[in-house]
Specification:
The structure holds two protein chains of two kinds. Chain A contains 19 helices and 32 strands. Chain A is α+β, with helices and mostly antiparallel strands. Among the domains of chain A are: 14-113; 360-469, Neutral Protease, domain 2; 474-610, Neutral Protease, domain 2, CATH 1.10.390.10; 619-712, Immunoglobulins (Immunoglobulin-like, Sandwich), CATH 2.60.40. Chain B has one domain (3-300). In chain B, helix 7 crosses helix 10 (249-283). The interface between A and B is large, with 60 and 69 residues.
């Protein structure tokens, strides 16, 4: 393995090497010197830019004889290599056995999984050092971004998201689209980010930055900044961009910011480069002359989109804070100024979030795949007093990881760690996903009062964890096609919730009331006026409408598709889609292509109507007629059933016809005509008709008109008596007033 | 006599006049049936769908959105209809108050004619007392919100969730007790109005307040006995209901019978509150307090 420059695609990060070494050094006293030996055996050649980083970061190396020599020499990588080899020869026997021991230690094995080969194309690789000033609620950071122009275009500019600027004024696009809902508009709640200095290839570009508003031209919106390059990025070139930023942290809004005195949830916190989409990628036509930047402004109805890469992050905070982050935290260093620096590292992720919380408690558990043995460490940052939720978090997370392994293939979640943040109540940071870090949702009083029978913690955990797959890895563009992540995720959430907690009770099973996860989703769609098509860009929707479209319509659509083509085939589609598109950026056409290919026959009849159309599904029983043929013996009836398609969407549907003699007929209707009649002549009358008896089409917006049958007397009696009792009880209660 | 004796004497009295409970139950049942009738078509609509079989196992809210988008107007109409009957029920209960006290004031069994005559005689006075009780109820609720809930909530905010929930439980218990204090005051107001044949609802209230303040421990003890038994009744019912499955017709009817017994028991307890407190009030020797003046001098009364 060769580590010769930070921009090397096969970079095995120095930070990660340090993580390995430090894990080792904490386990065996006197093993400091083995660091050099390990580096040697792994054939690491440490390049000059990393030398100071190693020395500063790793006391192990710094204190070792090797490092002393290296330090005194201030030498090149060749010198270091020489010194390492020298050290190894001097301590060969001792170090050899130690190496054997640690080579098979869990820390080392985990280290090997992140990752021998890059999982993604690693377009945007960040080295960040950031300091939190908690009293001023300010971040100051320095970033080295190594961005690769993966296109064949000569790219003349760069574009960065400055998400905090959504909260900079009341005329930002975010503010305008929030229509007055601007809680950041007071006191210390404002937030903003500015890049104070920026150089590309070592050349100062600070004066070549300008705010642009590619979505709406809003001159007051500063959530996107364009950098005009003095020399364009050549095809295949990796630019090294160094920049400093200063950010005022907003009071927590859309999950990011501060809350109370000691809670900082830092997401979308650094100037992040957009995605340069080359021809043929996502929605850019393959025959387009050149690619384009996809770097949208921040809208209240949208989330995010970024390239994969490596994040090597140093976070400096006051010592009393506990820190959690995306990826792994491999080291903490106490500084002399009552601060500490946390060293975090993540590979093959497209975002990096972190938490600094003074009061949070830390718990750990792990999930192990029973077949492959893969271990995922689960780190839970739990608020004090939320202990009731601890098991719910861990158990639901482990069950979800297991479900995805079974569903999409072993190792579906390849990262060594998952961090779950239980945010401070009131912070509004709950229920969100970032690569390898999710936030839970605890409506603690409700969980407490229902003795955890309201499974908010579990369902939110399942949902956010499902996002690790649908968007964390299969990284669709949430600005433009949010249904590709929220829809798939909500479908997964409902499916896993039902598998774990029962099909009718996955959300609530308390006091005789039972609610499935699907119930929580379906009403919003059924009652919405936003049954729109999905071809429009997400940010053109109102917030509620976009939620309906992204979460509810598409999750119901996937369930409908699953039931129509069968779970086995549907799972094959999802598995293929996941395996093919993870660590990439698919668009809806990519999913459709996979679905059609795996299904073996085109499913365009479905997608054309559901994705690209704005019609609704509504089938109904229009009429049932039974005519007794008196001239015939044996009570022969001529019967007729008329079924009707009220909605515009045409889907094949089953119709169950039941007769008075107990017999049943299951008819199939292509659902294309507005009405269809079924005729029967038999010695029994039709007693009941049910369209879609197995509820294969949950997209149907009115299930009440799907059947015609005599009232079930038991149900009538049960609920009438219940109602009568409720009325009696109400009256008895009201008599207190008299 | 102690509180328990007053309570047991009251039970004997109610048992002798159990027909009153029958009247109250009948009125409760008839009005509840009237409130249920508009729901028949709504429930029938639900029972005539493919979901019906699922509803036997439990009330799955999954079907609610579809049901609601079609039947919400009919449901709203039914609820408005029910509200009218609920208001009527309250008025009827006010009307019956005179009959109830006439019955429990006498150890001999009263007939329906005497019951209705006493009801009609006292209706105007009890109605005025009812009108007086409503603003006091609002006052008690506001006192609860501002004097108990708000300060305890501010304390709870700084606590950890478990402790905060305990604080809220304490707040609810205090609110419940405050509500019962209101109930006790106006129970005695009704008793004073009847026992002293007062015309003025307000003076009855003042006298009752003075009486309660003078005998606060005894009144509270007796009230708590009734309240405890009522609470035990609720707990027993909910425990019983949760253990009985409701998936067969027999179970449905069995549960309905238990529910009717529960309603009868609640009505019995309503009368028990009046009867035991009336028994206690009449047991306390004359002179009773009679107005505002006595309210402020009641501490000196023997």
């Amino acid at each position: 393995m060769v580590v010769n420059s930070p921009s090397n695609e096969r970079l095995f990060s120095t930070a990660y090497q340090i993580a390995i070494l430090e894990n080792i050094s904490t386990k065996v006293k006197g093993f400091n010197k083995s660091a050099g030996f390990l580096l040697h055996l792994l054939d690491f050649r440490v390049s000059k830019p990393y030398l100071s980083q190693i020395q500063n970061s790793c006391p192990l190396v710094r204190q070792s004889a090797c490092a002393k020599r290296c330090h005194s020499a201030r030498s090149s990588s060749k010198t270091i290599e020489y010194q390492l080899k020298l050290l190894c020869m001097q301590n060969f026997k001792r170090l050899f056995f130690a190496f054997l021991f640690f080579a098979f230690s869990p820390a080392f094995l985990v280290a090997q999984t992140m990752f021998a080969e890059p999982l993604s194309d690693r377009i945007a690789n960040y080295t960040i050092a950031v300091t939190l000033d908690d009293s001023a609620r300010v971040l100051d950071g320095r970033i080295t971004l190594r961005w690769k122009n993966a296109s064949t275009d000569t790219v003349p500019d760069l574009r960065f998201h400055l998400y905090f600027n959504a909260f900079k004024n009341n005329q930002s696009t975010f503010a305008l689209e929030s229509k007055g809902d601007m809680p950041w508009k007071v006191g210390d709640a404002w937030g903003w980010t500015e890049i104070t200095a920026l150089s590309v290839r070592g050349q100062d570009h600070t004066g070549r930055m300008q705010h642009i508003a590619p979505d709406d031209g809003n001159a007051d919106d500063q959530t996107v900044v364009q950098v005009l390059l003095s020399n364009p990025a050549l095809p295949g070139e990796t630019l090294e961009i160094d920049y400093d930023f200063h950010a005022k942290i907003p009071r927590n809004h859309t999950r990011t910011g501060w809350w109370g005195d000691d809670f900082f949830f830092m997401v979308q916190w650094f100037p992040k480069i957009g995605v340069y989409e080359k021809p043929g990628m996502r929605l850019v036509p393959a025959d387009a002359e050149r690619g384009r930047w996809n770097c949208h402004q921040f809208h209240p109805s949208t989330e995010f989109y970024a390239d994969f890469g490596v994040y090597d992050v140093q976070i400096t905070v006051p010592t009393h804070y506990k820190v959690a982050s995306s990826g792994i935290i491999h080291r903490e260093r106490l500084n002399s100024d009552h601060t500490k620096t946390v060293f975090a590292y993540a590979e093959d992720v497209h975002d990096f979030a972190w938490l600094a919380d003074a009061s949070v408690q830390e718990f750990e558990d792990s999930y192990q795949n029973p077949r492959s043995g893969q271990i995922v460490n689960i780190r839970l940052m739990l608020q004090p007093g939320h202990e009731l939720a601890e098991q719910a978090y861990f158990e639901s997370a482990k069950a979800t990881l297991r479900y995805f392994d079974d569903w999409l293939g072993d190792g579906a979640y390849p990262y060594p760690q998952l961090t779950i943040v239980d945010p401070q109540p009131g912070s509004g940071a709950g229920g969100m996903e970032y690569p390898t870090l999710i936030t839970g949702g605890v409506f603690y009083p409700l969980s407490w009062w229902t003795n955890n029978k309201l499974r908010i913690v579990e369902i939110v955990t399942i949902h956010e964890l499902a996002h690790q797959f649908w968007q964390g890895m299969v990284a669709s563009n949430e600005f433009e096609e949010a249904f590709l992540d929220e829809g798939f995720t909500t479908y997964s959430e409902n499916r896993i919730g039902e598998a774990l907690y029962g099909s009718k009770t996955s959300l609530l099973d308390f006091g005789g009331l039972k609610i499935s996860g699907e119930f929580a989703r379906r009403p919003a769609y059924v009652h919405s006026h936003g049954k729109s098509d999905a071809t429009l860009e997400q940010f053109t929707f109102e917030v509620d409408e976009s939620r309906n479209l992204a979460y509810n319509k598409w999750s119901l659509a996937l369930k409908t598709l699953e039931r129509m083509i069968g779970r086995q085939k549907f799972d094959a589609i999802l598995r293929n889609y996941f395996q093919r598109w993870r660590f990439k950026h698919p668009a809806k056409y990519d999913f459709i292509a996979v679905a059609n290919e795996v299904n073996g026959e085109s499913l365009d009849w479905f997608f054309d109507q559901i994705i690209f159309g704005d019609g609704v599904v509504d089938f109904a029983v229009a009429s049932v007629q039974n005519r007794l043929q008196e001239e015939l013996a044996d009570n022969q009836y001529n019967s007729e059933v008329t079924v009707r398609r009220i909605g515009d969407v045409m889907l094949p549907v089953e119709v169950l016809v039941g007769f008075s003699d107990g017999s049943e007929v299951l008819e199939k209707w292509d659902g294309k005509a507005r009405t269809h009649k079924f005729h029967y002549s038999r010695p029994a009358r039709i007693t009941r008709v049910v369209v879609d008896p197995e509820l294969k089409i949950p997209l149907d917006v009115n299930l009440m008109n799907n059947s015609q049958m005599p009232a079930n007397q038991h149900v009538m009696q049960k609920y009438l008596l219940k109602w009568l009792f409720w009325m009696q009880s109400t009256l008895a209660l009201l008599s207190v007033l008299s | 006599m102690n509180a328990r004796s007053h309570f047991s004497e009251a039970q004997k009295n109610i048992f002798r006049n159990r027909a009153v409970i029958g009247y109250l139950y009948l009125i409760n049942l008839l009005l509840a049936i009237a409130m249920t009738l508009p729901m028949v078509s709504n429930i029938e609509a639900l029972a005539s769908t493919a979901f019906a079989k699922d509803l036997i196992d439990g009330f799955f809210l999954d079907y609610l959105p579809d049901y609601w988008q079609i039947y919400s107007p009919a449901f709203a109409t039914a609820m408005r209809f029910s509200l009218s009957f609920a208001a009527l029920y309250v008025i009827i209960n006010v009307f019956l108050m005179g009959g109830i006290f006439a019955t429990i004031a006498h150890s001999a069994t009263e007939g329906i004619r005497e019951f209705l005559y006493a009801s009609a005689t006292f209706f105007g006075r009890y109605f005025r007392l009812f009108l007086l009780a409503l603003p006091f109820l609002v006052l008690f609720l506001v006192s609860f919100a501002l004097g108990i809930l708000a300060p305890l909530s501010s304390i709870a905010e700084s606590l950890q969730p478990d402790s905060a929930n305990r604080i809220y439980i304490i707040a609810l218990v205090l609110g419940f007790l405050l509500l019962n204090a209101w109930g006790m005051l106006f129970d005695y107001s009704k008793i004073v109005l009847f026992a002293q044949n007062r015309k003025s609802a307000f003076k009855s209230f003042l006298s009752a307040t003075a009486f309660v303040l003078k005998n606060v421990l005894k009144c509270s003890r007796l009230y708590l006995i009734n309240l405890t038994i009522l609470c035990l009744l609720f707990i027993s019912y909910f425990a019983l209901e949760s253990t009985i499955p409701n998936t067969t017709l027999l179970q449905t009817f069995g549960l309905f019978v238990i529910q009717q017994i529960f309603i009868v028991a609640r009505l019995w307890m309503k009368v028990s509150f009046f009867a035991s407190q009336h028994h206690f009030y009449t047991y306390v020797p004359e002179p009773k307090t009679s107005g505002l003046r006595e309210l402020f001098t009641s501490a000196q009364r023997p």
